[in-house]
Amino acid sequence: MPNRALLVMDVQRDIVDLADDGSGYLARLRRAIDGARAAGMPVIYVVVELRPDDQEVSPRNRPLTAAARAGLFREGDPGTEIHPDVAPHPGDVTVTKRRGSAFSGSDLDLVLRARGIQELVLTGIATSGVVLHTACRANDLDLGLTVLADACLDTDPEVHRVLIEKLFPQWADVVSVEEWLQPAWQDGHQ
Fold first, then answer.
1. Neighbour order of strands in the sheet with 43-48
2. pLDDT tens digits, residue range 158-181?
3. Structural domain range at position 124
4. Which CATH number is 81's domain given?
5. Total domain count, the chain
6. Is the whole-model pTM more than 0.90?
7. Which residues of 31-134 form beta strands (DSSP E)?
8. How far does Cα 5 stand from its chain's mean position?
9. How far are the Cα atoms of 111, 159, 181, 185, 187 from residue 129, in angstroms, in the given order?
């Protein structure tokens, strides 16, 4: 699977604290990460961080302005660290973004091109935030997409359901972590 990568997006301490619903999300995500590594698939972490002076925060961007006002996502703050239950291993790439999409204000596209990656497997928090924004951009870039439905999480379960059941299947294969880990599925999608 050299042309695929697993993206673990915005699974940072503060975000997990806000969104974790007690459903075992981090354990499922850990299984996906371990499965990707076992298959030799690169795992790329994406984090959102804002400079302390808010230079990149436009007042026209409502979600980002609200996050900045709440003091969230500040570079160097402990809350911006990747959650320790799914922390990167040596050699994993971590990309820092400044907006909703993993591509916005980051070098993700460069990392993907340098590694010849043409397909992405998306995970992260929130389904209606980074997962949606990244899926839109990846679709526009003609990248193949898989969304791991239960390795995505949103604070609004109904919005998550609509995106997973209605929108994402138009652009991507949408499967559970357990389905994705099955050899038959992997063999049929290489």
1. 93-97, 43-48, 4-9, 119-125, 144-153, 173-175
2. 999 999 999 999 999 999 999 999
3. 4-188
4. 3.40.50.850
5. 1
6. yes
7. 43-48, 93-97, 119-125
8. 11
9. 22, 11, 25, 27, 30
